[in-house]
Amino acid sequence: MLYREAGQFKSTYPADMAIFPLREDRIGIAVIVVAAYALAFVGSGFLLQAVLIPFLVFSLAAIGLNILTGYAGLLSLGTGAFMGVGAYACYKLMTAFPGVNVIVWIFASGFFSAAIGALFGLPSLRIKGFYLAVATLAAQFFLQWCFIRIPWLVNYNVSGALDAPLRTFFGIPIIGATATPQTRYLVVLTIVILLTWIASNLVHGRIGRAWIAIRDMDLAAELMGIRPLQTKLLAFAVSSYYCGVAGALLVFFWYGGAEYDVFNINQSFFILFMVIIGGLGSLIGSFFGAALIFIMPIVLGIVIPAILSPFGLSVGADVIEHLRFMIVGALIIFFLIVEPHGLARLWQIGKQKLLVWPFPY
Amino acid sequence: MRAPDNPVAAKGDVLLAVDNVSLGFGGVKALSDVSFDIRKGEIRAIIGPNGAGKTSMLNCINGFYYPTEGRITFKGVKRPKMRPYEAARGGIARTFQNVALFKSMSTLDNIMAGRSLKMKANFFWQLFRHGPAMTEEVEHRRLVEEIIDFLEIQHIRRIPVGRLPYGLQKRVELGRALAMEPDLLLLDEPMAGMNLEEKEDMSRFILEVNQQFGTTIALIEHDMGVVMDLSDRVVVLEYGRKIADGTPDMVKRDQRVIDAYLGVAH
Amino acid sequence: MDILYKIFVEPFVFMGEAPDLLLQTLWEGLVSGVLYALIALGFVLIFKASGVFNFAQGIMVVFSALILVGLHEKGVPALLALILAVGAMLLLAVTVERVVLRPLVNQPDIILFMATFGLTYFLIGLGELIFGGNPKEMITGALLLPHGTTEVEMFGGLVRFQHLDIAAAVIASIMIGVLAVFFSKTRIGRALRAVADSHKAALSVGISLNQIWVIVWFASGIVALVAGIMWGARSGVSFSLQIIALKALPVLILGGFTSIPGAIVGGLIVGVGEKLGEFYWGPLVGGGVETWLAYVIALLFLLYRPQGLFGEKIIERI
What we know:
The structure holds 3 protein chains of 3 kinds.
Chain A: H1 13-16, H2 23-42, H3 45-71, H4 79-96, H5 102-121, H6 129-149, E1 162-163, E2 167-169, E3 172-175, H7 181-204, H8 206-223, H9 228-255, E4 257-258, H10 265-278, H11 283-308, H12 317-338, H13 342-356
Antiparallel strand pairs in A: 1-4, 2-3
Helix pairs in contact in A: 2-7, 3-7, 3-9, 3-10, 3-11, 4-5, 4-6, 4-9, 5-9, 7-9, 8-9, 10-11, 11-12, 11-13
Chain B: E1 14-25, E2 28-39, E3 43-47, H1 54-61, E4 69-74, E5 77-79, H2 84-90, E6 92-94, H3 107-114, H4 123-128, H5 132-150, H6 166-179, E7 184-188, H7 196-213, E8 216-220, H8 224-230, E9 233-238, E10 241-246, H9 248-253, H10 255-262
Parallel strand pairs in B: 3-8, 3-9, 6-7, 7-8
Antiparallel strand pairs in B: 1-2, 1-4, 4-5, 9-10
Helix pairs in contact in B: 3-6, 5-6
Chain C: H1 2-8, H2 10-17, H3 19-50, H4 57-73, H5 78-101, H6 109-131, E1 149-154, E2 157-162, H7 163-185, H8 187-197, H9 199-204, H10 209-235, H11 241-246, H12 248-255, H13 260-281, H14 290-304
Antiparallel strand pairs in C: 1-2
Helix pairs in contact in C: 3-7, 3-8, 3-10, 3-12, 3-13, 4-5, 4-6, 4-10, 5-10, 7-8, 7-10, 12-13, 12-14, 13-14
């Protein structure tokens, strides 16, 4: 009743090719965006700092990985390292040119990740499937080694860690100790919305089709004139761009600094899990996956002590962390058995059912 | 729909010539010293028992396999091997024995994918899905819709092709090949697994493509009725060698062909 | 010019100057190579029999070692703890077959591969929950493993052979030999190879897939336990061992995913290559090269021969 396709006729091709052809979907998206902005003023500092900012950051990284692994079908275990490249590039740029607005550098740092991503993507013409995943492991370990061993990256500071110096945007601090969660959230939200829109455009057009073609049947795609190397390299480049920007946002807008170990192999795996559970080949799935994998342990951290405290039991933070690993692992297996296409497919099925509700079909 | 690409080559000129082509994999010789030509505007059938090398021949023409010996001449250019991208750009399109569609994409997207070669709008506009990128999408969509109308598959436009029945999948695959606006269309068993009605539809489409658009067609097919009705000339392969080459009537009466393939009416 | 000299000449000069150090490095590379091969073998077993690339092999190494050490800490005598650890691996094999493999039986390989990621993280969490995250010492004495070192005077210097290393190399070689014979000569081995070739065909001749999978995961579990004991004895039992197990991937790339001799050769190449690389070239770049050298070698190798040293050439048909 609420969600109806009937009566919405499309009389031009552009209208038919719109990404959200249904009016209800467009209204839904508008509501979500407005609500997201409203949260900046209504939400608590904790909610913004510990839940929403990282959720957005991981969603962006998941979109990046989804482009590579979900749409183009190239399994990558190097996500963490590519995020790191973006973070370190951003740091160098903003410390070397402190006069330039840092937002520019955030977008620019993605290009460095893109270049490195494309470089490590070169083998993908010869190597397929999970052999390629091993090649990306080479990227992960090598780049991580670089983060530790190249002191120039951290401007020779003794601790070997990145810090977040004060940066402002039209006079308002957005990076550094004085930046409030609200301002940081607004910046991150805007960047993520913008980049998601761009990803959506790419994926629905000729380039997205080329990626899916290469994923589904690369031999047939080549025989149709889609060039495999260019298409795969573009996937690596765009994917790494998104991961790089996510990495920069992670360090400067969430953590406020970073040890070299932040961009390790576990990071790569967690983003991969977000993409698998959320749904390979789905942008909205990236958000679902990030929500489930990231927000769930926070919820656990609140719910489990709440359940146990009436009994006088308490659990340490490390136990929650262990449970998180166990639950994430079990969820992966569960989803792969029950719905290999992830939460995004469940969402799609839900919408289909809603389209005909209250009738069963 | 298509302006003639090469006004110099009139109907009847040789579009593609296969000269002494041999193809081997390890110890297996798939093709031995095969030569024939395909003239512009004709429908050329390639027939023969299983394992004769028919699909391998198509694979050589479109650049998927490289012949170990011999040459392929396409539009006057001699090549020892054809690269897939060159074949595509030169105007060769193809369907496959085992339907090589992009299973997760809809019919519409599959056929749009066939337009990839013709889509040029640059990356920058793709990022915003605006301006030249959007105009191009709409223009190609229009063309794709014409193909969809022609093949009568409007009702399955948005269905992921993996879910379609086999006969419809083959039709979508034909649509995707047509989207490339090919000069030479290679069809590998387009009627396999179809019932009589579907075969009649497919035959009708193939004839229309040939007569209306002037597309040259090379066709592998086992149904002799179809071969005899549709084709202008036939090449017969057996164990990788050519054993007959001529009009359907000639070939039907050739003793070697009868022994190898057609059999005798009892 | 100077850089070229540093890379292409100096290290070899150094090798020649101190052959005892070279031998020491080679020996250490050999030992870790054999141990890598053992871990890789666990992967090969499962891959050969089920086509599944068991990413969880690494955590199985840690997990099995932890059970052994954990039980012993609680006062269980070493031999009993060993038997119980083996039993635990059998239980793990049965559970995995039931909960993970059976429901996913017809899914593409990549889905099963990802399921083993889930299994890995589940076991990491479980292991940390039960045993805590602190590194533990392997109970080498209680297991009657030798200790001490033999020093041999060679090439003008001393070369040290740790008895534990010798024992590790010997035990690993025996295991590898046993497994190779098992695969090629026994009835079950044949059944395993049949299953690796085609599930449907194996089923049609009456081979029980479920049984085979339990057997093969159990065998991998035992291999993991032995590997865990040996590695744990050399570097302590901790979750960082799991990262070492990731090294088995380059080994498998070099040796092919389905070849037992390949795993051995691959393991030796990686082990020796790593140690030589770290010792002779590492100082040029500040060390720590071991973390990535194996992967880069594997990557370069893949570019040249995408199917690995022993793998079958991939011919794609359309």
